[in-house]
Amino acid sequence: MFDHAKWVFYAATAYTWLGDDDRAEEHALETIQMHTRPDGTSNAPMRVADAHIDLGIVHARRGNLDAAVEQGMTAFDIDRKSLTDLVNRAADLDRVIRQRYRREALAEEFHERYVTARRALITRRPELLD
């Protein structure tokens, strides 16, 4: 059986990795739309968080640091069950932001949020994220 929602989710990340920013953005936005309820909660928080990371990478590549950091922070703010996947994906966004915007305060702000999440994962202390 074909799961369209899962395909769109995986396609967003695959296109991000391939550097096809237009298609990555299209699929990430579709993933967020499909999995966001009218009240703003999600029925697939990890997929939505990953889609925000994909959008962050796209924005960073396009030269929009503000939008990139906003998407990354949004991903960190989503209630989720697994921190491991989010930290691994956030590392991709952090790498792009630091390569392109190393001296920018917003880049450092995102990096600190990423480092805090990584530390929480390593020490298994999710309260560090609050």
From TrEMBL:
Superkingdom of this protein's organism: Bacteria
InterPro entries tied to this protein: TPR-like_helical_dom_sf
Protein name (database record): Tetratricopeptide repeat-containing protein
Organism: Streptosporangium subroseum
